[in-house]
Amino acid sequence: MNSHFPRIITLLRKERGLSQKAVAESLGVSQALLSHYEKGIRECGLDFVVKIADFYDVSCDYLLGRTPHPSGATVKISQPAAISRSAQETLGQTLLINSLSVLYSILGNCGNEDITNETSAYLFCEVYRVFRILYSANSKNPQGMFSVREKLAGSRAVASSEVALSNVHCLLTGEDIDNLKGLLKNAAPSLSPEKLTTSYPTLVSSLFTLIQQAELRMGVPTGAAEKPKKKG
């Protein structure tokens, strides 16, 4: 099996407010065995994967982490070598613009302006860092447009972005920070791939692709889940 399966079946059960005992009875297995499957202690057979997929009305590929869509739909990512440079630039811009639209919509639904502002501060610093490096690559470019000296810019931008990101994390958990107000209790967004697809049908594929691309950069083999071993 793979590391996605235990996490996803546990998440699905909790999202539906079901107990291990109730799910185990419906699937015809013991609660102890289901607990082992959810913790990744034991591997199940292919027949159980199919059975639990039918029970939660999702695809087997979704349970195995091969697609973010419960229905099993996949997001096709073009290989960089197969598209032109201009097409790559357009793709990158589209993924970022659409993903940011989803992000800011979710932030807006939280109803907390401080969280939105701190998120913007984090993104401002990250864009600043990249642009400053790009701008400074040519030593002939005048540095007068920047107030912070080049030798200090990188470290200060990193520090500022990390502070903003830490503030976002604390505020989302309900903590107040100085004059910044934390999120109200039970106001954290309830999200899942299915809910995102319903709320943002024209934008969410960009977000899913961005997530896949980011995790590929992290060395995570997205969509390369192992096939379940069939028990004899």
What does this protein look like?
The protein is mostly helical and 232 residues long. It has a domain at 82-217. Helices cover 59% and strands 0% of the residues. The protein is built from ten helices and no strands. It has helices at residues 4-15, 20-27, 31-39, 46-56, 60-63, 85-110, 113-136, 150-172, 193-199, 204-217. The protein starts with a helix and ends in a 15-residue tail after the last helix. The relative contact order is 0.13.
How many DSSP E strands?
Answer: 0
For the biggest sheet, the summary is: none
Terminal CA distance reads 15 Å
The structure class reads mainly alpha
GO molecular function: DNA binding
Protein name: Helix-turn-helix transcriptional regulator
Pfam families: HTH_3
Domain HTH cro/C1-type: 9-63
Element layout with pairings:
Blueprint: H1 4-15, H2 20-27, H3 31-39, H4 46-56, H5 60-63, H6 85-110, H7 113-136, H8 150-172, H9 193-199, H10 204-217
How would you briefly describe this protein structure?
The protein is mainly α. The chain has helices at 4-15, 20-27, 31-39, 46-56, 60-63, 85-110, 113-136, 150-172, 193-199, 204-217.
Task: Write out key terms for the chains shown.
10 helices; 232 residues; elongated; disordered C terminus
